[in-house]
Design brief:
Helices cover 40% and strands 17% of the residues. The chain is an alpha/beta fold and 215 residues long.
Amino acid sequence: MSTPLRTLGRITGAPTRLVLLPGAYMGAADFVSAGFFSAITRRRLPIDLLAVDLDLAMISSGEALPALQEEVLSPARAQGCRNLWLGGISLGGLLALCQQADSPGSVDGLCLLAPYPGSRLTADAIADAGGLACWQPSAEQLADYEFRVWRWLQKPPADFPVFVGYGAEDRFAAGLREIAGCFPSTASQVVPGGHAWPVWQLLWEHFLDRRFLPT
C-alpha cells in the first residue's frame, strides 16, 4: 500500500482552491518559505492554497497523478469546491499539464510557472516531424506522458483558463515560448531572470494581481 501524499495548506471552504505541485528536488514546504501562502493572506483573497509533495520515485512509476486525483482533486470536488485549479513549478508544471491532458475536466484552470517542456528526445521527435502543428503522435509515443502533454497542447480548449509565466533567460526558454504560444498572448507573462525562485516568486505575484483565479 502506497504512502498517502503529504500536503501543506489550510482548507477553509473557500469557493476557489489552487493545488500546487513542486518541481524536482523541491517540496511543499518550499512554497511556504517562498511566500506563496503569505501573498494570498496579504491580499485577503478568498482562496484555499494546497501544496503537495511528489517524490521522483512516484513520478517515475506513474503513481503520482493517480494519487493526486484520488487523494486531493476528487475530495476537493466532493467537498463542493466550485473552482479547482492546478499549478506547478518546472516539473510540477509539466505534471499539471499532464493531469489536464489525461483527465479533462478534473480541474478548471492551470497556473504554470516555468513548466518543464520535456526532454530533448521529445522536442527533437516533434521538430523532426515538422513542428507541433505537423506532428502526428504514434501509439508508442503516447505511452509517454511528455508526448501526451504536447498532443493536448496542439489544440487546448479555447475557453480553458491557463497562466504561463517564465523568465526570459530560463534555460528552457525555447520550449516555454512554445508552450505559451499555444494559448492567447494575454495568458502568459515573461519577466527577467532564469529558472530560479526569485523569478517564480515575481510571477506568482503577477498571477495573483492579474486575478486569473475566480473569487
